[in-house]
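#struct-help
A.M.: can someone run this one for me? Single chain, 367 residues.
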Amino acid sequence: MVRRIERDRRRFEEIVRGRIKQDLKRHITRGELIGRKGNEIVSIPVPQIELPHFRYGRRETGGVGQGEGEIGQPIGGSQGDEGAGQAGDAPGQHIREVELTIQEMAEIMGEELELPRIQPKGSKSLTTPKNRYTGIKRAGPESLRSFKRTYKEALKRQIASGVYDPRRPRIVPVREDLRYRSYQQDPVAVANAVIVYMMDVSGSMGNEQKEIVRVESFWIDTWIRAHYDGLVTRYIIHDAQAHEVDRETFYTTRESGGTRISSAYQLATDMLAQDYPTDEWNVYLFHFSDGDNWGGGDDERCFQLLQERLLPAANLFGYGQVESRYGSGQFLHSLESHLSAENLVLSRIEDRDAILPSIKAFLGKGK
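D.P.: on it. Structure tokens below:
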């Protein structure tokens, strides 16, 4: 009976996941999910789910191919009666709220987009000490006292001394009975990653463009976080100059003026050199812009920083060009024609409907 219940539960979960996948684009682009963490519960509305089952009719009614009838006669009713009838009092379809964690939503997204599991670059990891309990000692802090071993020692002492009464068992430990767990610290390799987000905040990047970046980066975060023990996120905004900011400022700042993309790439280069040595960290870099860039050789400066500093350090560098009526979109074409690297991924994001294809482009290589 228990196995049957478990089988039915798994079957129901598979049906729910299938229904969510059918409308995944709408669920993923819901702005209200942004800011949730992996184990937080969210409610996803799905249509009424009815598990298919057999329904038995009366014996005397016959079946298909049985009894009287003419060739071409409809089964179960006559032609021409569609739409006939009066209003009834039966309930209609209902919407069901299904509760999932953000991490489960990310897993469904990964299944639908066929995203491979991320493979950390080489042996890039940090070493952290981990306590491992290895034995029992006669001294130690009270927080590590072993009740079981202390009880056994007290029982052995009372039996040996002849004071133990099995009819009225009363075990009272004394100081020499106390036992404590001992431990040693073993170094454990822990894979860690840093994501650096860069975004153009010049006047041509409007609220809709920033919301697209906000949604896409949230799901990129969630997917990458599932593959590492630790994830650090840093944010850089730029127009003609670049600045490091917090998350809220990153998504809300709007400025005017020119755009110098190399300023963001230089700041990211300095940040990695100072805080995230590439022999210890898995590095992910994402830059979002509408494709405008200041002339005067700034594109060439970007190419140099990418080739010499950023691409050699990164597991993945993703450039997402968010379409804007005010942006020229030229920088994407410049990257396509001047750079080619396995860990460089370029994506054109026309609107919200392009968020999922863009995520697949960025994460589809399992870098």
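A.M.: thanks! The chain is about 35% helix and 20% strand.
D.P.: also worth noting: The first helix runs from residue 2 to 22.
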